[in-house]
């Protein structure tokens, strides 16, 4: 008999904001208080992954529910061309 390995992956949206001094600040809207940074996108992505894992472990240790993941939702930049809009002066 072979054992079946079940792997569950939770997906949370992370918001990367460029910093004036370089690098990125990262927040996770579904996980209040999760804020991290990194000098590069790759470093910021690794740091936010660690922060999310730590956050979820603390919730588990405290017997609290893990927030539902962002399974269907995602973020995408939307550009608005202001030259096509009329604003009241």
TrEMBL record:
Residues 12-70 form the HicB-like antitoxin of toxin-antitoxin system domain. Coiled coil: none annotated. SUPFAM superfamilies: TTHA1013/TTHA0281-like. Pfam families: HicB_lk_antitox. This is Toxin-antitoxin system, antitoxin component, HicB family. The lineage of its organism: Bacteria, Candidatus Amesiibacteriota.
């Amino acid at each position: 008999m072979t054992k079946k390995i079940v792997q569950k992956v939770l997906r949370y949206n992370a918001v990367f904001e460029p910093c004036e001094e370089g690098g990125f600040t990262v927040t996770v809207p579904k996980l209040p208080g999760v804020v991290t940074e990194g000098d590069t996108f790759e470093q910021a992505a690794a740091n936010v992954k660690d922060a999310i894992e730590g956050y979820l472990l603390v919730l588990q240790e405290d017997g609290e529910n893990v927030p539902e993941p962002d399974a269907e939702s995602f973020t995408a930049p939307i550009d608005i061309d202001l030259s096509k809009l009329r604003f009241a002066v």
